[in-house]
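Hi support team,

I've been running sequence recovery on a batch of backbones for a student project. Most finish fine, but this one hangs at about 90% for roughly twenty minutes before it completes. I'm not sure whether the input is malformed or the queue is just slow. I've pasted the structure tokens below so you can try to reproduce it. Let me know if you need the job ID as well.

Thanks,
M.K.
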């Protein structure tokens, strides 16, 4: 995939981050709870992970934040130094780090959803 298409995906991720972050913060502020402090109580936190819509929103937020942050960091590293070896190492490193981030985060969300605490 060419760089310009990846940049377009990165911009779309920024929009999705804004939407999902707003919804995530709204669930802690005024959607279904009486306030921010009440949303941090253990039962409310369990509810966030066991509710399908909220768990899906957390998964989307995880994926788009991981892609956006890794892609931006990769771009910064590629501008820092040039060369085929460096480019290859940074590209593969970004793929590995993103896969680990998403796998660990999804494992946490899915495990909490399946066990229903």
């Amino acid at each position: 995939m060419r760089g310009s298409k990846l940049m377009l995906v990165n911009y779309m991720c920024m929009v999705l981050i804004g939407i999902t972050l707003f919804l995530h913060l709204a669930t802690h502020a005024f959607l279904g709870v009486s306030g921010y402090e009440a949303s941090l109580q253990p039962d409310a936190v369990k509810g966030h992970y066991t509710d399908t819509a909220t768990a899906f929103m957390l998964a989307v937020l995880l994926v788009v934040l991981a892609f956006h942050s890794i892609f931006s960091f990769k771009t910064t590293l590629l501008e820092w130094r040039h060369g085929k070896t460096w480019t290859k190492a940074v590209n593969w490193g970004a793929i590995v780090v993103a896969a680990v981030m998403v796998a660990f985060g999804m494992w946490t969300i899915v495990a909490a959803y399946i066990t229903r605490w």
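--
Follow-up from support: It reproduced on our side and the slowdown came from queue contention, not your input. The chain has one domain: 3-115. No action needed from you.
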